[in-house]
Records
---
Amino acid sequence: MTGKARLLRMILGRLVLGLLTLWLISVLIFLAVSLLPGDIAQQILGQSATPETVAALRRELGLDQPLLQRYLDWMGTLLAGDFGNSLSNGRPVADLLAARMGKTLFLAAYAAAIAVPLALFLGILSAYRRGSLFDRAVTGLTLTMISFPEFFIAYVLMLFLAVRLPFFPTIADYGSDAGLIEMLHRTFLPAMALVLVVTAHMMRMTRAAIINLMAQPYIGMARLKGIGPLRVILVHALPNALAPIINVVAVNIAWLVSGVVIVEVVFVYPGLGQLMVDSVSNRDIPVVQACCLIFAAVYILLNLLADVLAIATNPRLMHRAG
Amino acid sequence: MRFWHPMPWTARFGAVVIGLYALLAIFAPWIAPYGEAEILGGAFELWGGDHLLGTDNLGRDLLSRLIWGARNTIGIALATTLLSFALGAILGMAAAANTGLIDQVLSRLVDVLMAVPSLLLTLLALSVFGPGVLNLILIIALLDSTRVYRLARATTMNVIVLDYVEAARLRGEGMVSILWREVLPNISAPLIAEFGLRFCFVFLTISALSFLGLGLPPPTADWGAMVKENAALITFGDITPLLPALAIALLTVAVNFVVDHLLHLASGLKE
């Protein structure tokens, strides 16, 4: 088999695996409602509910149908873009999501656009200058940062940069007709909170990946041949470092997802995270399921993309034939 | 004194802080000047006077609630981590010992659970099962045990092929005895370091959920919830609501420092 065909097969395999994971997660999210011993309708309505209202809610949730039938119906309507209706206000879940999804994506993209280059730069630099004052300072700082709860970082930023020095607003919502500059300004603090959390995790893993790589014998060989340090890093180390770095970026998107939930609540930002938290306290299960599914799908697809990129950029897979 | 002597100052600092928190948590009822949910005066009183750190949004003594909070927040995080470890380590070792159907089923299940950020599944489970301390502990322990499972399985796999395990098997030791007496002592170093990391993660998760209003039910003093209850003060430039968050941060930093040292020891004192 040629290198190209081999590469294609690996990428296809990864695609199938990723889609399978996504499907299994959808089953899990669907099943969560059926896992409860007893009846979810009774649970939601409480002990004082009349049998009629319980029966009505059961019908509303489709609980009077067999499990497989329910799953197929749920999946079918889902694929058509219909997420059912909210239990607390009866509005279609899809409408609730549509209004908020853009805000969350904007915030996450804003944070990622700063955090990813920053983390990679710091990670590579501190691995390169391992043991130096810079390395120890950055490593210590990031260790402290990952120990802080996200809401602590968010409130500290708010206290100093929005209240004591009123550079930024404490409430991040930018309304519907703000220009890009105003959007970036209003969401600066929540984005910064996310950047600090994500950069800390990402930088530590990047540093570890690079150090691991630099310990490989072929790097030692390159050095012994008398090649300059810059050339060792750029020509010898970097091509092989690309795959682990892409992986590090993908893994750390998880921190962005959970961070966004908290940060949105702190800055009263009407995104998906806040919707999800509100729906959990109201036990509005269709909305929680939908939010969970969207976050999970985005996360899995980004990881899938990273996997494919990591395979495609791996120089070892390009050359070895058969 | 291999543990203490070559210890860097960070790890010493961490160990001392953990000790102080433990004392505070254990002796909270004797140390705290007031009761956990006692309403004593006006809301948001300033620092000083009868209330060293002022009062909270309902007029409860903030210092007392901080001290009681140590007991509640750390206690629940510890219980959750222990449960997660018991579950993950037992299943992980069992799966490594009987590579077959059980291993396949468990490992694939763990793969699926770990394929998405655990906060998502925690929120989903909380919305289905409802809030409450027991639900919180069970849900987080189950989701977190996936990581312990992976570590226990991988480390057991490495140890179980060694000669002394084979010798024990030929001696007629049963599988449970082999896992307990031969394998466990040899995988305990990475497991102990992992315990610290898992504790931090669980502790931060529970604090985050409490902060979101999905944690311990009021009026229990809980650090995450205390931040949320008093958050309004921040918009007036007051740092009081940050104190519970600082308490969380300090403990996590301390545990991380000690874990870093343990990992360093476990890796065979390199560098």
Note: The radius of gyration of chain A is 24 Å.
---
Amino acid sequence: MEQTKKWFANGYLILVFVILYAPILFLTAYSFNSGGSMVGFDGFTLEWYQELFSDTRLLIIVLNTLVIALISATIATIVGVAGAVAIHNIEKTKYRSMLLTLNNILVVSPDVIIGASFLILFTMLGISLGFFSVLLSHIAFSIPIVVIMILPKLKEMSPTLVDAAQDLGASQWQVFSKVILPYILPGVFAGFFTALTFSLDDFAVTFFVTGNGFNTLAVEVYSLARQGISLKINALSTIIFAITLALVLGYYFLSTRKKPKTLGGTD
Amino acid sequence: MKNNRFARLALIPYALWIVIFVVAPLVLIAYNSFLDIEGHFTFANYGKLLSPVYMKMMFNSFFYSLIVTAVSLLVGYPVAYFISRTKHKGLWLILLILPSWINLLLKTYAFLGILGTAGPINAFLEVIGVGGQQLLFNDFSFVLVSTYIFIPFMILPVYNAIEKINPSLIYASRDLGASNWKTFQRVIFPLTTDGIMSGFQLVFIPTLSLFMITRLIAGNRVITLGTAIEQHFLVTQDWGMGAAIAVVLILVMAIVMFATRKIIK
Amino acid sequence: MSNTIIRFENVTKAYDDTVVLNNVNFEIERGKFYTLLGPSGCGKTTILRLIAGFIQPTSGKVFIDDKCVNTIPAHLRPVNTVFQDYALFPHLNVFENVAFGLRIQKVKEAEVKERVANALKFVNLEEYQTREISEMSGGQRQRVAIARAIVNRPQLVLLDEPLSALDLKLRTEMQYELRELQQRLGITFVFVTHDQEEALALSDEIFVLNKGIIQQSGTPTDIYDEPINRFVADFIGESNIVDGFMLEDNLVSFANRSFECVDQGFNQNEPVEVIIRPEDLEITTAELGKITVQVDSILFRGVHYEMSCYDEFKNEWLVHSTKKVDVNSKIGLNFGPEAIHIMRLGETEAEFDKRLEAYEE
């Protein structure tokens, strides 16, 4: 009885995860198809990878996407840390929850709303649509998520740690740099990587606020896909997937192996 | 550290961000919704929203979003539950999150091939004798791909809610004579309502606003609020009308947030 | 340099409408071990935080070394604190935790090494320099916290219920160590606790606090033997408190009889409260006792039995004795004149001191 239940549970999980990965594996498989379409596998080839690497336009777009992601995540993390510290230090619950509500608006807002409203904003401010407007948008929608990732860390930190640092002579800046920042660092990293993910994953907002001549990968794929299928895209997805997989699994094994010892010390 | 100069200084960039990128955009959307295509003040946009065409579009949009949310919950809840019972939770979770690092456009693009007339699903249907079907460009493909995209956002909050349950509650329930199923029904499920509500927020609202799936996969058969907004802003350039629909979407969002938060409390 | 290190002048601290410290005045002298004793919410931790500079008084002045420090922030005050939850920095190891204050002062590396090593030696942790905080036990963390405070050579160490998280055995051990440490260092310790036994064992001086007011201050024996009011008597050790009145000097009446006592300076027939400590009551037969009581319940406390008894006027009498008696039996209680302590109703500390001085001469 227990055994069949276990089989069912495992079977179900595996099925769902196979479906979850099917599209990615599908893309990967066809990236090696010499047939030139995602119909029928004619033979193995690396031709699409060659074509991808000789397509400077596409490579520049990939580079744009990465640059936007890195810069926006970095700036969003800095502003987000400041925001989280500021929110945490507001003593009146009323103001704190008001700021938090404002903070969360962009997190729950649908992409189209963010995209459309930013489009109006940039047009009104006279900011031309392109690299700069996309960068600003990515920073803007990443900030609240960084704040959300850091706040719990700040909350969990015992206030006596700050007292202790002050007591030992640390100035306000030293309290922040020597105690608070190291303490919330995991949250800061989590925030940075989530911001990175949000930026790399974004399509809708960028689609609204980008202009001629500047594209991120998602927007490019959208226009390519509307024209039909190109196996260069498959090759590109495969490379992206391989890199993410390596990074994530590497991180997982490192983090499980280096787990801090929780031994109670012996006297 | 409370109330010091450093924290007040930190508030400046953050407050600037709130004013420019949170408050101003909302105000601008609301303002634009009262402008016609020439920039004159009008209520006409809201008038048009009440016309049968728009009412039907909005109804459809809600309807399909609800289906997507329901399917995500039905498929996703057991996944969350089973993961919480496995040994290597961390690994399963990473495997769950991993696909979301692949841009969703790429995944959507993959479905063009999978569901295509010459794709593997159709090939399979041929083999088992059902015969080829047009799987793309209809409401089925919309629901399928949307569910595929959003299901992790249902699984994660439900999983977190299950993990938060104190294991002694489950022992207590067993101790009081409840079977596994009864324990699930009377203890675990009620305690995961929070997670389900967060999942609802995270799936329902984004599905309302999807537009690229409707364009690429559903062949414009399903028009969501998002599609309509995109259409007005980027195709017909009628920002006023687009903004009016956006206001509706924002209101729906506010209502959903409020309603689910009430339940959460 | 005057011998007073801390002085509070009419210090009041209020949050919104709640007054947590009400017009408090006291002085703390160099080199002694002080304890602030009281139930939770009595204001003892508030006093500590005012001295450390984490909070500012609503009114009144705090002096350190005869300088008003109201406007001086915590990081510039010559005091260090040992926190209740230790507040050790989880991202730093033992050495770096202790070195934190020295690094802030930009002390030279060689000196840092030496002073940290010395401080850790002081608390018997010299072998643990490179350990992570998460690898240390509760008692060890406690010692790291102490080392971290004393390494900066403060004139005053504040200890906020530092032993409350430890188990009984470790706690007693740490009490000895703390007392010894204070004497070796010769600096002032201000110790906060709600544990009266701890206070009695450790202190040179105790301040008993309740409801934001210092109820009584004095040496442990003063406070134990001559509690000023019902609160102090109840809080410091177990007490039997019954109502009575003074017939004349050295004669008090309670439980419908008059007894010889050693208290003077009262009005005739003044109503008073009478305290007799449970360990001062001696069990005898019903016939021989000064008062007769019936045993209601009995508990074995290890060193002694604790009997709860009632006299015919429904006064409860708690008795500590190594003798065991039967429940429901009638016994007699004996006590000498010195065992009786008389408290005047609503007497302030100043009046109390004056009266004591008057008849001690």
Note: Chain C has nine helices and 20 strands.
